[in-house]
Amino acid sequence: MRQQLRIARPVTDLARSADMYCQGLALRVLASFRDHNGFDGIMVGSPKADYHLEFTRSRRHPITPSQTPEDLLVFYYPTESKWRVACERMDAAGFQVVGSFNPYWNARGRSYADADGYRVVIQHGAWMSDARRLL
Description:
Layout: E1 5-10, H1 14-25, E2 28-36, E3 39-45, E4 51-58, E5 72-77, H2 80-93, E6 96-98, H3 104-108, E7 109-113, E8 119-124, H4 131-134
Parallel strand pairs: 1-4, 5-8
Antiparallel strand pairs: 2-3, 3-4, 6-7, 7-8
């Protein structure tokens, strides 16, 4: 069995968040639930990926999303054409372009904020597993 990663975030509007991320990152709704112990949620991702995003909302105790400028989801696009298309999708989906707190992400990427202020970086380049090459 393969290992999977789920990133869960409280949001103010489940449908809006799912729509933005599905359109902006070319994802799709994988699953959802209603009133599971007082929570509603939607999972979005790609069926072929080893990760997915979960957006939740508590029916009993709504949580105001709280993030920092360094809470990032980073998606790597190695080719210029795919990077540009990804940025166009993010713009069309309603993400707001924001400057990055860490200037590294401004050099070859574009940072976006969703409606709750969570940040996504669309990076033009391939991820390198050798940490020495990142420095």
